[in-house]
């Protein structure tokens, strides 16, 4: 009889980074600190944009949604890893693994869409400043975020339903710290051709599509900035999108690094370490980048600090 799927499989084992007992406390402290910084930093961005009327603009509306996505994104993986380290238990239930994978795919997709929307917003602000307020109205802003959510949910649902059709054998050790789609699929003992086809096609279409959208927007932005006659005008125009460009480079750069490292190396620890860069480090650095390079955010945060003193 062919092996069954969830009727026989009750749990997976997440091997994580290291099995050395002396490193567990260090890993727990490191990831707990990074997680708290991520949540606190992104919450401050959200509170700043809500509380200050000067930040009720399309750019900060999208930034608040990006911060919310960052919190959810890192919350899908890090808390479970912290629990496993603390309890010395690497198990995750079959249902928990599918759920974690679903939300991970959802929020990483949402982040890509939001970064594309933010690039479009900067394109309109710099290339069409006179029509910016008319085009980027509140209805369009909400619609762009809603479409981003719908596309992300549908993509995540498709990938998760495809995994539910797979059968798993006895090799249930996932050399990762979370249920990553590719790792789970390749641990199935049934045919995964259709899964691989959908996984790479959808990821390439959505990931490549969002990246192309961002590159197109910035090609137009660079052309517009090049046409500005004064150096001060060029600097002012570029400074409005410098933070977003930094976050885009970090997000897509680390994501590309993960796939290159997984293709070039069969060392599970190196792949897990590379994955940590875009699943944990990037969401932590995003609010730092925006708060350090954005005078409006810094002004509101300073006001918060003064009020608490």
What would your notes on this structure say?
- The chain is an all-alpha fold.
- The protein has one domain (11-308): Rhodopsin 7-helix transmembrane proteins (Rhopdopsin 7-helix transmembrane proteins), CATH 1.20.1070.
- Helix content is 77%, strand content 3%.
- The chain has 11 helices and 3 strands, in the order βαααβαααβααααα.
- The chain has helices at residues 21-51, 58-75, 78-87, 94-127, 132-135, 138-164, 181-185, 193-226, 231-264, 268-293, 295-308; strands at residues 11-14, 91-93, 173-174.
- It has a 3-stranded mixed beta sheet.
- The longest helix has 34 residues, at 94-127.
- Residues 1-7 have low confidence and may be disordered.
Major sheet size, sense and barrel closure: 3 strands, mixed
Low-confidence stretches: 1-7
Radius of gyration of CA atoms, rounded to a whole number: 21 Å
**Strand residue content:** under 5%
* Anisotropy-based shape: globular
How confident overall, as mean pLDDT? 86
Strand count: 3
CATH fold category name: Rhopdopsin 7-helix transmembrane proteins
Structural class: mainly alpha
What's the CATH C level? Answer: Mainly Alpha
SS summary, helix count: 11
Domains (count):
1
Q: Helical residue percent? A: over 70%
CATH architecture: Up-down Bundle
């Amino acid at each position: 009889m062919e092996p069954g799927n969830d009727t026989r499989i009750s749990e997976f084992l997440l091997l994580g980074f290291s099995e050395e007992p002396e490193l567990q406390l260090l890993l727990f402290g490191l990831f707990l600190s990074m997680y708290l910084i991520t949540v606190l930093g992104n919450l401050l961005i959200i509170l700043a944009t809500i509380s200050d009327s000067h930040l009720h603009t399309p750019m900060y509306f999208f930034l608040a949604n990006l911060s919310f996505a960052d919190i959810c994104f890192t919350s899908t993986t890090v808390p479970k890893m912290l629990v496993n380290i603390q309890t010395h238990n690497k198990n995750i239930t079959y249902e928990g693994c599918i759920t974690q994978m679903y939300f991970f795919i959802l929020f990483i997709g949402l982040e890509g869409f939001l970064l594309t929307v933010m690039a479009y917003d900067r394109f309109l602000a710099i290339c069409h400043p006179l029509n910016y307020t008319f085009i980027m109205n509140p209805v369009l802003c909400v619609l762009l975020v809603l479409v981003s959510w719908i596309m992300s949910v549908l993509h995540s649902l498709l990938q998760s339903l495809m995994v539910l059709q797979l059968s798993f054998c006895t090799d249930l050790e996932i050399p990762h710290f979370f249920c990553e789609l590719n790792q789970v699929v390749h641990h199935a003992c049934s045919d995964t051709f259709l899964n691989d086809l959908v996984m790479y096609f959808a990821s390439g279409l959505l990931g490549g599509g969002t990246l192309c959208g961002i590159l197109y927007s910035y090609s137009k932005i660079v052309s517009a900035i090049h046409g500005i006659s004064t150096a001060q005008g060029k600097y002012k125009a570029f400074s409005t999108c410098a933070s977003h460009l930094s976050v885009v480079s970090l997000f897509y750069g680390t994501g590309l690094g993960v796939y290159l490292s997984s293709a070039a190396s069969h060392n599970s620890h190196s792949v897990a370490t590379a994955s940590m860069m875009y699943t944990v480090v990037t969401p932590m650095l995003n609010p730092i980048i925006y708060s350090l390079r954005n005078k409006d955010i810094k002004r509101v945060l300073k006001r918060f600090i003064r009020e608490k003193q």
